[in-house]
Amino acid sequence: MDALREMTSRWLGLFAVFLALSLPAGLNAQESDDVQLPEQSDVRIIVDISGSMKDTDPENLRQPAVRLLARLLPEGATAGVWTFGQYVNMLVPHREVTDAWRDMAIQRSAQINSVALRTNLGAAIETASDDYFTDGDLSRTHFILLTDGKVDISDDPAANTAEENRILDTIVADLIERGATFHPVALSEAADTDFLKALATESGGRFQVADTADALNLAFLQALNTAVPQEQIPIEGNGFTVDEGVREFTALIFWGESETPATRELALVRPDEQTVNLSEFPDNVRWAREAGYDLITVNEPLAGQWRINGELGEGSRVTVVSDLRMVVNPLPPSFTADDPLNIRVGFFEEGAKITNPDFLGVIEVSLSITSEDGRSGTKVLSGEQPPEDGTYRDTVSRLPAAGLYTFDVVADGQTFSRKFSATVGFTVPEGAEPADQPVEQVEPEVSEPAPATEQPEPEPPVAEPEQPEPEPAIASPIDVSQAEEPITPAAQEPEPAPVQPEEKETAFAIPLWMVGAAAGGLVVIGGLVWFALRRRKQRQQEQAEAAAERETLEDLQEEPEPEPATAPVVESDETAEPEPDEIPEVTEEAPEDDMSELEAVIDEHEATLKAEDEALSEPEVEPADELEEDIPVADTPVEEEPADMDEDIPELEDVADASDADTPEEDDEEEFGLEDFDLSEFDDLPDYDQDESGLPEDDPKKKPDQKDQKK
After folding, report:
1. How far apart are CA 145 and CA 167, in angstroms?
2. Largest CA-CA distance found in the chain, in angstroms, rounded
3. Cβ neighbours for 223, distance < 8 A, ≥ 6 positions apart
4. Closest by alpha carbon to 459, among 414, 423, 491, 485?
5. What SS3 class is residue 631?
6. Mean per-residue pLDDT for 11-33?
7. pTM of the full predicted structure?
8. What's the confidence (pLDDT) of residue 596?
């Protein structure tokens, strides 16, 4: 009983541990499948001011980039700015973002230069990663690193290499375990891209190279949008619509390619047709112009249609602050076909998720994907019925080619509109192909041998729809944006093709083991057959050896007395009568051919040997049913008429004397036993006679003997 109780307690303990481990996983899975309001982000900007930046950033584009980040950081977030060379300086304290903090960051950005002697990046990361304000949790902390990545703490290259390894293996590894993410931005290709890429890849961030002012602004903007996703209002044409729930909007308008500060002209037209520009704007408007962009913030804007008079550069956007929020789950910097991109969209008002079907029923939610070359496509996520839990879901597993893609989620609620934008990279493993081709590569994996020849056939039809995609830009991303839809349309036209490989898979998968089993069975059967044949051969050899033992020379010497009894039996039997007739036939052939007496004697011996062999071979073959009737006939006369044997023996002796050859008689006795063994088993008498006779094989006089043996 004690053992039973102990065992029961152990099982209960294991079950409790299993529940404790499985329940959080299930809850996390449910949370990851849903969308929630993001917590306030923590952004830490680290700027390199080492002397090497004179070459990588000669125009000091770091200053306007830092000011852009300071102006775009939302209120409520925490942020700080650090500069580093040989030593680390806190340029802007790590505090909550307010108007005062923004003003401080904008003013102190002018202190960014390139005068430091060394590049002590490790010390800068260690200093900026102080977890005092986060209580050790860095899951919401994003490091935006602006540097050339050239670690320089000593004149010894080995010491610099060791410092790089320490940064990646010790400093960054510890921060990543606590949830930190790094977004390094290099200002030229001369930067240590390998080191910066490793820094971004290991932490789940994105590495970018910006060699111009516009590229740097876009790189900082993408890094900031990843760290602090912001809601936008879609720009349609040259205008956008502001709804009544918007408390503030910020319009970031990038310049055109050919514009300069002297030629730049930009104005905003309010819904009441009043114009706002850089030289004249009301108190609720803040207007900042930097090289390459204009940043306009309007508090308590009028609801209605706003127009933009001026050129809109790439990346222009309008972000809003509103009680009505469209929230999209954080998107990773990159994804693959094996690790697809999951998109979750939800709407919140005053912090609560909206699930009212009447409200969601009038909203159209769409997903647009744009490639680097400008091709784009759109897919509607909202169906006829809104989701019961208020979350719109979609999964993107593969795209036409590897590269960076812009994902835009747009919600049109008739009276309001929201937009979310993010840049995500699609990567393809080495040796694999993107888009529809990986779908075909999945088929050869399932069907190993046969489909390999069939796979190149579906490839051309899959590649054909990709070519017309640039013209109908909407068509391609619709197929690409879905995880399963790109597979089904490609397989809809050749439906039998995908079905056949599946059948072949099952048909081939079963024979894989059945063929092996059948082959093993054949081997076993073959072994049994070989064993049976071998046993049969052994039995024959044993019988032959037994017969040979019985028919020794002594037995042959004793047997001559009963053996000649076969002669009278043969004479009395009808079947034995032709045997003595053969002897005169042989003797008659000899004079016709003018043969010598020795040859005649040999022929007579061969004939007699044949007759004796036939008589002896019959009792040896016991299993034959037909021979059983002749055996008693041969046995009975042996006992009844032994005297007749003496009459036949002198006839053989006279023939032997006439030939004057005594040795043949002795050989005949030995040859009789051997020939009798050979005849019963192999029937090789003709070959043996040829060897013993000494005559050539092609002798014409031995041919009739062979015929007689056949008879």
Report:
1. 14
2. 158
3. 142, 144, 183, 185, 206, 208
4. 491
5. helix
6. 40
7. 0.58
8. 54
Tokens found for residue 404: 């960076």
Tell me: the pLDDT tens digits for 621-670? 444 444 344 444 444 444 444 444 444 444 444 444 444 444 444 444 44
Backbone angles phi, psi at 584, to 5 degrees: -65, -30
- Closest C-alpha among 450, 453, 441 to residue 506: 450
Has residue 36 got a pLDDT over 60? yes
Instruction: Taking residues 24-34, report their average pLDDT.
Output: 46
Q: Is the pLDDT of residue 581 over 80?
A: no
- Report the chain's C-alpha Rg in angstroms: 52
CB 277 within 8 A of CB 341: no
Contact by Cβ (8 Å): 394, 481: yes
User: For the chain, which domains are there?
Assistant: 42-223 (3.40.50.410), 239-426 (2.60.40.1930), 551-710 (no CATH)
Most confident of 54-63, 502-511, 682-691: 54-63
Strand pairing category for 417-426 and 403-412: antiparallel
Distance separating alpha carbons of residues 56 and 576, to the nearest angstrom = 122
Question: What's the pLDDT score for residue 554?
Answer: 45
Taking residue 7's Cβ as centre, other Cβ atoms within 10 Å add up to: 10
Asked if residues 121 and 153 have their Cβ atoms less than 8 Å apart, the reply is no
Amino acid letter, 676 = D
Provide the pLDDT for residue 531. 75
Taking the C-alpha atoms of residue 376 and residue 269, their distance in angstroms, rounded to an integer, is 30
What residue type is 38 in one-letter code? P
Three-state SS for 363-379 is CEEEEEEEECCCCEEEE
State the Cα–Cα distance between residues 85 and 52, nearest whole angstrom: 10
Give yes or no for a contact between 56 and 188, defined as CB atoms under 8 angstroms apart: yes
The residues pairing with 95 across neighbouring beta strands, listed in sequence order, are 79
Res. 21 pLDDT band, cuts 50 70 90: very low
Query: What H or E segment, with its residue span, contains residue 13?
Result: helix 2-33
Q: Is the pLDDT of residue 247 over 90?
A: yes
Q: Which residue has the tokens 């809601």?
A: 231
Please check the confidence at residue 151 and state whether its pLDDT lies above 80: yes
- Report the C-alpha gap between 199 and 168 in whole angstroms: 7
Helices (H), 237-305: none
Residue type, 627: L
Ramachandran assignment for 683, one of left (phi > 0), alpha (psi -120 to 50 degrees), beta (any other): left
- Cα atoms in the Cβ-side hemisphere of radius 13 Å centred on 390: 18
In order, the DSSP letters of 97-159 are --HHHHHHHHHHGGG--S-BS-B-HHHHHHHHT--TTTTT--TTEEEEEES----BSSS-HHH
| Best CA proximity match to 42, nearest among 133, 111, 112 | 133
The count of residues in the chain is 711
